[in-house]
Write a structure and sequence with these properties.
single chain; alpha+beta; Glucose Permease (Domain IIA); eight-stranded antiparallel β-sheet; three-stranded antiparallel β-sheet
């Protein structure tokens, strides 16, 4: 019976501990997401909406608002997940509290009965008679051990009641904290939904105004895509020529990959080992255009293609190399701002839309070294860097390589 009580309490405490750790980990993960999205919205407001003196191009204004709407919708979704999860935990804790209270009451009743029976049947005189009636010294010794064991059992039961009571108090405290946290999140979510509704209405009004004026959003988007494609084509040509030059120098005929020295191989290996941990090419920023082929965020019937990501940043921000390397080329394409290409073994990083360039072809650069200043559009005050990463000729998704900001 003693072992049964002890094992039972250990199981209860262990289950509660494991449950509490899992619960804490899930809550921390959701809270971390929520805080990160809130920070991103603050960055969007700072980087895209702080300069109210500049009037944005109508399409740019609609696109910027879509960036904020996307993040706000994700925030609302995470808030809902967190509120639902807390509701489940509250319900579980409420049931656990009821169960523990019942167990404590039952344990107290059992303990009281045991004490009463102990006083009735094991007074000092009865204990002596119990010992003296032993048939041998061995039996007397065993009876003494039994009485000691019985006394320890009583003490242990009292301790178990105390421990369960403390566990109940902890659950009550946790329950109050969870309810408070849930109420806070529900209130924040209600405010976020109001802002989302207002911003969506504003965006729809802007789109309708563009349509009313007879302006073709698709034509504007396609014009931007044509310009981006021309720059990408020129970057591909430069990379292809660099590959051919490296293989010619090494006496090889490959046209798809660089012929690398041992130092360049080590550099490429080090870059790969830092996948997901590379510093951002700007000190602060928010991604306003993702990698790959995708529907335009506003005109869904129009597809856009991006070989990298576009990062909105603050005016006079410096573009910086994400890893050690060598400046492979500086592209000055007609009708666009300069682009710097940095070679890291068989990897190339591209930094497009620079207003100023601080390096020249052949320069060795270090991680986070400034290579130029990001261009700020004087018409709308928007500062954005287009960043790409290639493995030889193949574009990579930069978001998978950069550390989470």
């Amino acid at each position: 019976m003693i072992r049964k009580w002890g094992c039972y309490l250990c199981i209860v405490l262990l289950a509660h501990s494991t449950f509490g750790q899992d619960n804490k980990s899930r809550q921390q993960a959701l809270e971390s997401q929520r805080q990160r999205l809130q920070k991103e919205i603050k960055q969007i407001n700072k980087l895209l909406y702080s300069n109210t003196s500049k009037r944005k191009n109508a399409l740019v204004a609609v696109e910027d608002l879509e960036v904020k709407l996307t993040v706000r919708e994700r925030l609302i979704q995470v808030n809902n997940q967190q509120a639902n999860y807390l509701t489940q935990r509250i319900q579980v804790n409420e049931k656990e509290i009821v169960r523990l209270r019942q167990e404590i009451e039952q344990a107290k009743a059992d303990y009281a009965r045991m004490i009463q029976e102990s006083y009735k049947s094991q007074s000092g005189q009865n204990r002596l008679l119990f010992l003296f009636s032993s048939e041998s010294l061995v039996q007397a010794y065993r009876r003494i051990q039994y009485m000691k064991q019985y006394a320890r059992f009583r003490k242990r039961q009292a301790n178990e009641i105390t421990e369960k009571t403390l566990l109940l108090q902890d659950l009550n405290k946790t329950l109050l904290q969870q309810r408070k946290q849930k109420n806070k999140i529900v209130t924040e979510n209600r405010d976020a939904q109001k802002l989302l509704k207002k911003e969506k209405a504003t965006q729809q009004k802007m789109i309708q105004e563009l349509k009313r004026k007879g302006k073709s959003l698709s034509a504007q988007i396609q014009q931007k895509q044509k310009k981006a494609a021309a720059i990408d084509k020129e970057i591909s040509r430069l990379i292809r020529e660099a590959i051919a030059a490296s293989n010619k120098k090494a006496g090889k005929k490959s046209t798809s990959s660089f012929a690398m020295t041992p130092e360049e191989k080590l550099l490429a290996t080090n870059l790969e080992s830092n996948r997901g941990r590379l510093p951002w090419p700007v000190s602060e920023g928010v991604i306003v255009q993702r990698f790959g082929t995708q529907p335009h965020p506003v005109v869904r019937t129009t597809m856009i293609k991006s070989t990298g990501i576009t990062i909105a940043t603050s005016p006079r921000s410096q573009a910086r190399s994400v890893f050690d390397g060598e400046v492979m080329s500086i592209l000055s394409f007609k009708g666009s701002n300069p682009t710097v290409l940095v070679k890291h073994g068989n990897y190339i990083t591209a930094y497009k839309n620079l207003g100023k360039v601080f390096v020249k072809k052949g320069d060795k650069v270090k991680t986070k070294q400034a290579i130029g200043e990001v261009f700020t559009n004087p018409a709308d005050g928007k500062t954005s860097l287009q960043f790409s990463l290639f493995k030889a000729m193949k574009p990579q998704n930069p978001k998978l390589w950069l550390a989470r900001m």
